[in-house]
Structures are given as structure tokens and as C-alpha cells.
Amino acid sequence: MSAITRDEVAHLARLSRLALTDDELAHYATQLDAIIESVAKVAEVAAEDVPPSSHALPLTNVFRADEVRPSLTPEQALSGAPAVEDNRFRVPRILGEEA
Amino acid sequence: MSLIHKTAAELGALIAGGEVTAVEVAEAHLDRMAEVEPKINAFLHIDRETTVEQARAVDARLGAGERLGPLAGVPIAHKDIFATADMPTTAASKILEGWRPPYDATVTSRLRAAGLVILGKTNLDEFAMGSSTENSAYGTTHNPWDLTRIPGGSSGGSSAAVAAYEAPLSTGTDTGGSIRQPAAVTGIVGMKPTYGGSSRYGLIAFASSLDTPGPFARNVLDAALLHEAFSGHDPMDSTSVDAPVPSVVEAARNADISGMRVGVVKEFGGEGYQAGVLARFHEAVELLESLGAKVVEVSCPSFSTALPAYYLIAPSECSSNLARFDAMRYGLRVGDDGTRSAEEVMAMTRAAGFGPEVKRRIMLGTYALSSGYYDAYYGQAQKVRTVISREFEAAFHQVDVLVSPTTPTTAFPIGERADDPIAMYLADLCTIPSNLSGNAAISVPCGLADEDGLPVGLQIMAPVLGDDRCYRVGAAVEQALESRWGGSLLSKAPAL
């Protein structure tokens, strides 16, 4: 049995905001199935009582002083924007026509 | 000897002594780049004028009596994943084609402060995902030892540039082996510092709990000098280690390993390893013994599950990190015709801008993090990560360093694994455990494999913040082997 179906890959693509073609979905379904099968080996390690590590080293929160410091100007912040209007990022509509 | 064949330490001394200018050194390397780039393709961006201008500024600073470090005026090739305000930064992705960051990464600004001269930005696997640079959106880089072979990856442009004498030094990033593996297959030195020892600020993120900037060089001392130049605590990176940089330069000059305890990891070797790689590795172990080290065998049984754990953790982090490429604030935007929604534009842009490996990893990570699968995949991988760290800890109670081959095989032919992601992932079998546990690890050349005459790397792993041990053992191996070979391994490479 395959670990992942084409429909599931289509769902993952949607969640990942990747507009994939039908051919791509079929191709990735085969590859992801093989990869997931091989990474499933992690289950072989008996680790029920082991705490998970999200990180290599023990970490604590780092805070900085709440001071005003130099930062990017609006021009710098907008310098790589695909579209700009009135000193702001111009984006496609985010709500439906009726909203 | 021509300027391009000198070490970084030698060039720094010549420039400091006024025997040659930084401009002359930069121009010699720019000429070499013009000559060999058509064959190697190590660079994504070269800008002769900006480079010469930087060199001129360093000459002026030195002329004015400013005290810069030992690498002042030395040229460097910079991986195109570090933000540079005066050069494009693309991560070898179409989604960032032509992007100019409004700021410098911390590594970049420290290079500038130390007076290093940036020759250009080097090629990589897109967003550092890969082991061959074949995943670059701008064409693959070729291995100077054999142009039909891969230069390793993801930092393959950086390894090839140094191995082809286009630059004495380069930067890389190592998330699963992306410095050590390219160094091994091109016959040079590559170091992954302790996680958090070098800053991630301004480094385009792939897997934030693993990404580690580090140096490439043609010898151990040069790597240590560069390591020292850009490492150390950075308040702009919340995971930066607030501790002094280990005394790596001193260790590289010391090279005395008598009485050191060296552990050979039993689990690395056997099936899947090339005979010529194992032969050079076993010789290197004998050499360590002859230099006075005590060699013992060490078992780390869970290292065999490091690769699967990594291929759950890294894609999970990548799927989250790469969500920032949303076609709204910078980078590519596709399909914005006035009728499509932001979500449609986002999905079209990401489909057009990301290459196949990046898409695979984003979807794999999204899968591993989805409810219903989280515990079995991402959660379990995080537990395996703990187990692996504990095995390292136990091993470092017994020994000072661990050694293994850096890679299971020498450089493979371009195209051989391009369509087989699982085969490609195996290139990082021996390097990944150190990323999961965050400890320091270096690759140094240890000879040529008999079957193909290609370089083999010896990996030396040291505990967290024990980076100096990597350099000490690496320098001892280098010294002994170079006197046996009558020169560097790289001097045996065919002329380009």
C-alpha cells in the first residue's frame, strides 16, 4: 500500500500554496511515497520516554533592551517589492468580490 | 609562485608587509575567474568593479594605519545565500532572481570589517537543498578534478571556486553536510562550526535549528583564520552562542595530537561505502595512531536513523521558513493580472519560482507536520534527535574526537542521482548526525580513491564548542600527509 495518494499530494500542494499541474502531482506522489517510506525508519528507535529536541543546544529566551535603534527606511523596505503604491506594498485582492 | 596559488595566510602577510596591494591580489583572482569560469561555473554573480573598489578601500585603510586582521586584503568567494547589500542575493532560486537585499548578513559585515575582499557570489543548490549544486536554478557547477562530476553541495560553488584557485577562501553553510561534503569531494578543507557559533542573521533560512555558516580553504590554518574572522556572538541572532570563539587558530598552528583519544564510529562503513574511500579512511586512522593518538572503536547505534530523522526535521522547518516567499513583499510575482486573488498569485508564483527539490521538501515538511502524522513523523524525529545527541555525549566521555569518512563515495557524475532524491540524500549519511546534535565537525583531504583518482575526505567530529579539536587533529593529519605526498592533495589535480 502506498503511504501517500495523489489526492493527498494535491491537498499538500494546496496547503503549501503551490499551483501544480496534474503531471507534477502524479510525479511528486510517486517520489514522496518513496521518501516517506524511507524516513518511516525513525519509528525503529525506541524513544517513548525520551523528550523531543527542537534544537541542538539548550536555549532560553533572548531579550533586547527596548530602545529605538536605526532600522530600514520605507524606501529600503519597499526596494524589492513586486508592486508599490503610496509608499506601501501593493498586493492582489485578498477578499472575494462580494465581501 | 603566482598570487593565486598562495595561501590566505601568505597573501595576508604580503599585503600587510606592503609587498603587494589588495588590488593586485584581487585582480589576479578576477583574471583566474575569467579564465576558468566557462568550465567551472562556480559563481552566480561577479562584478569586477565592485570587487576592485573594495580592494582599493582596504589598501587605503591599511595605508592610513588602520589595524585590520591577518586576512586584510585577502579575496573571498561568498555563498549566494548570505545577504549582501552591494550584490544580488538569490539562494540560486528563480523566486529571488535579481533581488538586492537592503542590508548585509552578519557574516558579510564581519568579512568586510576584517578587510576581506568579496570576489562574487557562489552557486549552490536552491535554498541550500541538495548535495550536488544540480538543484541550482542557474546551472550546475563542475568539479575541478573532473568536469563531468559534481562539486558537492549545497555549497558546491564555494568548494569549486577554492579548488580551482579562483579564491583562496570561501564561505558556506552546513545544514546536513553542505560544507563538509563539497570540501571532501573537491579535495579541500571545510568546517562546520558548533551550531550557534556563527551567526545566521542575514542568512536565507532553510532549517533554522541546523543552519550553520562555516569556512572553506585549501589548508587547515586558512580555514581557522576565516572561522575566527566571522564567528562569535551576534545579538541579532537569538540562537547565537554567547561564549568566546574556541581558539581555532592556535589549534591549527599546534597540530600536536599525542595522547589524544580518537574514536572510530563503528556504524560508519561497510555496505554503500566505496572501497577506495574506506581504504584511505583506514590509512588515516593508522596515521593518527602513528602520530601518538589512542584509537578506540565507538558504537553509536542510532546514527543509522539520523538520515531519516533529518529528512523529517529539515523539510518541516523548510516548509515553515519558505512560507515567507509569498509574492507580496519581495522577489518574484507571477499572474497578478488584476483579477486573480492574492492566494492564486501566491500559488502561481511559488509554482513558477521554486524548483522540484524545494517543492518536494516543502510538501514533505507540510506532510510531516500535519495533524494525524505529526507524532509519528516530526515528533518521533525530534526524539531520535535527542537519542543521537545522547550517543554523541556518551562517546565524547570516552574520546576527544570521533572520526569517519566524510562521504560514502567520491564525487559522482553529474546527472547520476539528479532524478533519484533518495540516492542523493545518501551523500550526507556521515555528516548529518553532527547537525542534529550541533557539535563541531571538519573535513580534511586524506588522499585519492584508487578506483577513480578522486579526493576522499576525513571527517573529524568534536563536542559542542570543541571546534579547536577539529583544527588540531586536522592540522596534524594535513602536516603528516603533505610531507608524505610532497605537497597538497590539490597539487595533484589536473590542470584546468
Question: Can you tell me about this structure?
Answer:
The complex is a heterodimer of chains A (99) and B (496). By secondary structure, chain A is mainly alpha-helical. Chain A has a domain at 1-47: Histone, subunit A (Orthogonal Bundle), CATH 1.10.20. Helix content of chain A is 32%, strand content 4%. Chain A has helices spanning 6-15, 22-39, 74-77, and strands spanning 84-85, 88-89. Chain A has a two-stranded antiparallel sheet. In chain A, helix 1 (6-15) packs across helix 2 (22-39). Chain B has 496 residues and is α/β, with parallel strands linked by helices. Chain B is 40% helix and 13% strand. Chain B contains 16 helices and 11 strands. Chain B has helices spanning 8-16, 22-40, 48-63, 106-113, 156-163, 180-186, 220-230, 248-254, 275-290, 306-321, 342-353, 356-369, 375-398, 421-425, 432-437, 467-485; strands at 43-46, 75-79, 117-122, 169-174, 189-192, 212-217, 261-265, 294-298, 401-405, 440-448, 455-462. An 8-stranded mixed β-sheet of chain B has the order 4-6-5-10-11-9-7-8, with helices on both faces. A 3-stranded mixed β-sheet of chain B has the order 1-3-2, sandwiched between helices. In chain B, strand 7, helix 9 and strand 8 form a beta-alpha-beta unit. In chain B, helix 7 packs antiparallel against helix 8, helix 8 (248-254) packs parallel to helix 16 (467-485) and helix 10 packs across helix 12. The longest helix of chain B is centred in the C-terminal third of the chain and has 24 residues, at 375-398. The model of chain B has no long low-confidence stretch (mean pLDDT 97). The chains are: A mainly alpha (99), B alpha/beta (496). Chains A and B meet through helix 1 and helix 2 of A and helix 10, helix 11, helix 12, helix 13 and helix 15 of B.
